[in-house]
Specification:
two-stranded parallel sheet
């Protein structure tokens, strides 16, 4: 009887986790000879290895290497400037440096291409002014152009974590170093920055995961990475096995980065107890004057200008020059499609996150914790990979039992796209809800049980009132992420249901960059909401 009760109580959790983990498990199963002769699988692998795979691997690694270096340098320099030094405008730069988080990388790519390309206003003005001919600037749509875009779009990941680590540095260590005669440069190089090194590594890992997951920038710039190769193998070559096996290789790279990020986070847990105190003289920012002050301004201004101000200005130019080319008549339709998909997904993601977090709260055994972790893997998986992993079992089931109509239910319907969104972003909601649960003492649960409250009443009367702010934050984050998601939306969206992200990509691909400015700016405006809330939270903690 006990085993039966155990099975019945965990069955809903297992089914829920199975739906969220199915795309990842399906990708791993693509290496098995299910519906494919083993020899055919070997032939596909040999063809991939001799043609496209080396180029995909080399381009992806080269892109990741330079994006990691760029994000580490820009993010760490900005974090050190606003944390370790004091200069006019430092408090303003603390939140300005977060603004590129509101800019999807593909929107930044469209803006720079529109302004810097051969027919863009800058090169046209230079040719007319100085009587020059031909191309005057390097090609924007290139590997180095993508590195530039990703660096100034993703450095806030490094900036946020490095700023937190430097802000929480051990004051007594800095003070002890000063008493031992160490100059400021040596104290920073040997104490402050080493304490921030794990945070920088974690931020770089997050930036690289976003780079690997990107489809908009690499596809628009014509760069052959794993993500663009997956979409091409699935849609252009109609080879689902090749797409799935490419996805597993990309998944292995992402999981490696995820492991490195978790390892860096564990190393970030250090204590700073001792004779020093937070108000110690050496814990305060060092005032800057003269050339040093100008250098600090430059370090903080350049990322904000390149990652937010310049792209927004480039996209505002079509709005100011010619309003007639903008698709105002279709804009509300695109916005509504984005909003209702984001709203449905946010509501379902919060409900799933509450169910998973409550299961761990009630029974934190190995099986429950493992199931919840498995359900959270989807956030580290690129949207293109999730699409392949979702459609692979659907296609297999449709071929075996065509009368069920599974393909018609999942493909090009709201069911399939919301399912993919939940796999991708449910971990975002779960993390926020679990952080809310961490602030609820277990003694409240014990008191409710002693008063005879069941699980439903415990959630409704005790947990929910204390989790409202956490669930609201979770819903907002999922909503914004869904609004900006491109590859999963582009493949799975219902017919005649284009979203702002898809329309911006299609207009830019068709060289209608002026028309792409309106949906792109709408995405930026939506992305500003969580950035403003994050800035307020960080300032309150400070």
């Amino acid at each position: 009887m006990s085993r039966t009760r155990f099975s019945l109580s965990t069955l809903p959790l297992i089914l829920l986790v199975g739906l969220l983990a199915l795309p990842v498990l399906a990708l791993l199963a693509s290496w098995l000879p299910w519906g494919v002769v083993q020899a055919d699988t070997g032939t596909i692998l040999r063809e991939m290895a001799s043609t496209v795979l080396p180029r995909y691997l080399w381009t992806t690694l080269w892109l990741g290497l330079w994006v990691g270096v760029g994000a580490a340098v820009v993010g760490t320099a900005a974090a050190a400037a606003v944390t370790l030094f004091d200069f006019p405008g430092r408090r303003t730069f603390e939140w300005l440096l977060l603004l590129p988080l509101a800019m999807p990388a593909y929107v930044t790519a469209y803006a720079y291409t529109d302004f810097l390309q051969f027919s863009g206003p800058l090169q046209v003005a230079l040719r007319e002014t100085f009587g020059l001919e031909g191309r005057l600037l390097p090609e924007v749509r290139s590997l180095w152009g993508a590195i530039w875009v990703f660096t100034f779009s993703l450095y806030p990941y490094v900036y946020l974590l490095a700023r937190t680590a430097l802000g929480e540095r051990a004051a007594h260590l800095m003070e002890a170093a000063r008493l031992l005669g160490a100059p400021l440069s040596r104290r920073i190089a040997t104490i402050a920055l080493p304490l921030a090194r794990p945070a920088v590594a974690a931020g770089v890992a997050l930036a690289l995961m976003e780079t690997l997951a990107d489809f908009g920038v690499t596809s628009y710039f014509g760069i052959q990475t794993f993500t663009t190769g997956i979409i091409k193998a699935w849609l252009s070559m109609d080879n689902r096995i090749a797409a799935a096996q490419l996805s597993t290789m990309l998944l292995a790279l992402v999981l490696l980065l995820l492991w490195l990020e978790h390892r860096a986070e564990r190393r970030m847990r250090f204590t700073a107890k001792g004779t020093g105190h937070a108000g110690a003289t050496e814990a305060q920012p060092v005032p800057l004057r003269g050339l040093a002050r100008g250098l600090a301004w430059g370090v903080c201004t350049l990322p904000v200008f390149m990652g937010f101000v310049a792209p927004v200005a480039f996209m505002l130019r079509p709005l100011a020059s010619d309003w007639s080319v903008l698709p105002w008549d279709r804009f509300l339709e695109w916005a509504w499609n984005s909003v209702w998909l984001g709203g449905i997904t946010a509501g379902l993601a919060v409900a799933v996150a509450l169910a998973l977090a409550f299961a761990v709260r009630r029974k934190s055994d190995l099986l429950t914790r493992g199931a919840v972790r498995l359900a959270s893997v989807g956030y580290a998986v690129p949207g293109a990979v999730i699409v392949v992993g979702l459609l692979l079992p659907v296609g297999w089931l449709q071929a075996r039992v065509p009368q069920w109509g599974v393909a018609a239910l999942v493909t090009t319907t709201a069911v399939g796209i919301v399912w993919a969104y939940l796999v991708r972003f449910c971990a975002v909601a779960l993390q926020s809800v679990q952080s809310g649960y961490a602030r609820i003492p277990p003694s409240l649960d014990d008191s409710a049980r002693m008063l005879g409250a069941g699980s439903a009443r415990l959630m409704a009367r005790v947990h929910w009132p204390l989790l409202r702010r956490s669930t609201a934050a979770a819903a907002l984050l999922v909503f914004v992420d869904v609004m900006k998601e491109l590859p999963a939306t582009m493949v799975l969206r219902p017919f005649n249901s284009d979203t702002l992200a898809v329309v911006a990509y299609q207009l830019a691909r068709d060289e209608r960059l002026g028309e792409a400015a309106l949906p792109s700016l709408a995405l930026v405006a939506v992305g500003l909401v969580p950035v403003i809330l994050l800035s307020r939270t960080l300032r309150a903690r400070t």
